[in-house]
Amino acid sequence: MGIESFDDEVLKKVNKANPGGITREAISLLRKNGILTVVNVIHGLKDESWLTILKTTLDLRRAGPDFYNALHLTPLSWTKEGRDVQVDQIIQLDQSRWDFRKPVIQSGRMSPFQQALAVKFSEVLFYSRPLWIFKQLFLRDPVQRRIALDGFPRLCRVFLSECFALFRAKFSKPGEASKDLRRLSLLLPGRKGGWGSGVA
Predict the structure, then answer these.
(1) Which domains does the chain have, with CATH numbers?
(2) Distance between CA atoms of residues 123 and 118, nearest Å
(3) C-beta of residue 200 within 8 angstroms of C-beta of residue 84
């Protein structure tokens, strides 16, 4: 489920007609019908801070999906949100790293490293639920149990791999992207009339 956010103002901004209440209800109904849920949340759709990411995490814990896919806003030209990003916000010039799993833009006052670290803590906090762990171990449905038991070790391996990659990651300073626009031409083609200050 691509819920993107629990913040109704953010959802309105990105034209998503799924307010937090509807998302929680949908997750509850799916759970009652024996369906595992995975939710996508995009960090960076608003000015992020440790507090906003903590609030999102607590909203996720209350909603209770089975899995949480934590993504970072990536300024792809075929999305409205990507077109709204200013070129000077881009802090990752290597487009091979634009995989949604690492920060690509400067979001608010947090540095890219701080945002990535906060999101990793968010994942740990989300999965540190004794009831959730117990439920995955004792799922009645054999297919669900197999999915959960197979998926959790994979999730842990990916998490550790991304943590190691984070400490090796190099980010540019805000503003440097506008000095080397040719490197961004693949996923950010120039708009009519030139680049200007935005992405289109």
Answers:
(1) 2-184 (3.30.750.200)
(2) 9
(3) no
Burial class (CB in 10 A: 0-12, 13-18, 19+), 15: exposed
- pTM greater than the 0.70 cutoff: yes
User: According to the per-residue pLDDT averaged within each range, which of 32-36, 56-60, 85-89, 165-169 is highest?
Assistant: 56-60
SS (H, E, C) the chain: CEEECCCHHHHHHCCCCCCHHHHHHHHHHHHHCCCCCEEEEEECCCCCCHHHHHHHHHHHHHHCCCEEEEEECCCCCCCHHHHHCEHHHECCCCHHHCCCCCCCECCCCCCHHHHHHHHHHHHHHHHCCHHHHHHHHCCCCHHHHHHHHHHHHHHHHHHHHHHHHHHHCCCCCCCHHHHCHHHHCCCCCCCCCCCCCECC
Tokens 């038991």 found at: 149
pLDDT tens digits, residue range 110-140?
A: 899 999 999 999 999 998 888 777 777 777 7
